[in-house]
Write a structure and sequence with these properties.
Radius of gyration: 21 Å
Low-confidence stretches: 187-205
Helix content: 25-40%
Protein name: Kinesin-like protein
Number of helices: 12
CATH class: Alpha Beta
Keywords: ATP-binding, Cytoplasm, Cytoskeleton, Microtubule, Motor protein, Nucleotide-binding
Oligomer: single chain
CATH topology: Kinesin
Strand content: 25-35%
Distance between the termini: 5 Å
GO molecular function, one term: microtubule motor activity
Main location: cytoplasm
Family: Belongs to the TRAFAC class myosin-kinesin ATPase superfamily. Kinesin family.
CATH superfamily: Kinesin motor domain
Mean pLDDT: 82
Largest sheet: 10 strands, mixed
Length: 363
């Protein structure tokens, strides 16, 4: 069985955290271990001297603030591309409190592209390099789940979309816009890409096709529901789901389909930290409910022997991901925390959630 991978990324301290006198309490000890220290415990308390103030958490891989986007991509997501091309499902999701760098990891910036761009580039390159008797089609859809409603980020005017199960039991979003990102004909007509330009910063693989798709995604991302909260002035209030479908036709072998979900989850949060009221508070409740449903599925999957039933129907998010959490799927979670003493409670619950996800076993 394929085992899910759980990574943890600690972002740098923010200017606001430094200004309010926060100190770093989360540290990466080695490639897999992160230590979190409780800032409230008194080091001179003799009675509690035997209790360790530090708790360590072990992950498949841990990154501190010096890790580059390329390092994070290679260690977490690069290995999924070959499986998706050959017909397997995979899911990568960024999890963590609001303002801890999930969107940076997934979308990135122009100068530091994130997992979306790097994965698509690698996928296009692998298809260009594939043997000639196989035809590929790649299509991309981009949606958000906001207050348990599904919106098409590539065409928001479609309104609220519904989930449907097809005859094979696969969950689909009815009426979602799919853009054709690449087909075998386009690949064969295109001249091979040279690696000119800056040798220190080579272009992403498959770069000939990539900018067009990324422009569409950037436009979609601007449609996302964002609102300022006390924890983050551009807090994403929705889960953004980028779905990449690869259809492979090989002479005499029929059709294979692989799906890759890349998900920038909404921030897990306590209302006290984000100081949410009214509408923000309601959104936060929806966000936390769907993250709880995801956590429950993860918990049930990690105790497969004792749990017969896994409730995917508790949220739109878990229904959509049903095939990609269980089944012949690889799952990668990249959890994000702030190292600041002021974020201790958020960091502790994120580390515990991610640690639990480490024991998922899929078949």
């Amino acid at each position: 069985p394929s085992v899910s991978q759980v990574a943890l990324r600690i972002r740098p301290m923010s200017a606001a955290e430094l200004a309010e006198g926060a100190r770093p309490i989360a540290h990466r000890m080695d490639e897999q271990v992160v230590v979190l220290r409780d800032p409230m415990e008194d080091p001179d308390d003799v009675l509690r001297a035997s209790c360790s103030r530090e708790k360590s958490y072990v992950f498949d891989v841990a990154f501190d603030s010096s890790a580059t986007q390329e390092t994070v991509y290679r260690a977490t997501t690069q290995g999924l591309v070959a499986g998706v091309i050959s017909g397997h499902n995979a899911t990568v999701f960024a999890y963590g409190p609001t303002g801890c760098g999930k969107t940076y990891t997934m979308l990135g910036t122009d100068g530091e592209p994130g997992i979306y761009a790097r994965t698509l580039g690698e996928l296009f390159q692998a298809i260009e390099d594939a043997s000639g008797d196989t035809k590929y089609e790649v299509s991309v859809s981009y949606l958000e789940i906001y207050n348990e409603m599904i919106r098409d980020l590539l065409n928001p005017s479609l309104g609220c979309l519904q989930l449907r199960e097809d005859a094979g039991g696969a969950v689909q979003v009815a009426g979602i816009t799919e853009i054709s990102a690449i087909s075998a004909e386009e690949v064969s007509q295109r001249a091979p890409m040279g690696h000119g330009g800056d040798p220190a910063n080579p272009p992403l693989p498959g770069a000939a096709r990539l900018p067009q798709v990324l422009r569409v995604l950037a436009r979609g991302n601007r449609q996302r529901t964002q609102e300022p909260t006390a924890a983050n002035c551009t807090s994403s209030r929705s889960h953004a789901v980028l779905q990449v479908t690869v259809r492979q036709r090989r002479r005499g072998r029929g059709l294979r389909r692989g799906r890759l979900f890349m998900i920038d989850l909404a921030g897990s949060e306590r209302a006290a930290q984000t100081q949410n009221r009214g509408q923000r508070m309601k959104e936060g409740a929806h966000i936390n409910r769907s993250l709880l449903a995801l956590g429950n599925c993860i918990k049930a999957l990690s105790h497969r022997a004792s749990t017969k039933y896994i409730n995917y129907r508790d949220s739109k998010l878990t229904r959509l991901l049903k095939d990609s959490l269980g089944g012949n799927s690889h799952t990668v979670m990249i959890a994000h925390i702030s190292p600041a003493s002021t974020a201790f409670e958020e960091s502790r619950s994120t580390l515990a959630y991610a640690h639990r996800a480490k024991s998922i076993r899929t078949t």
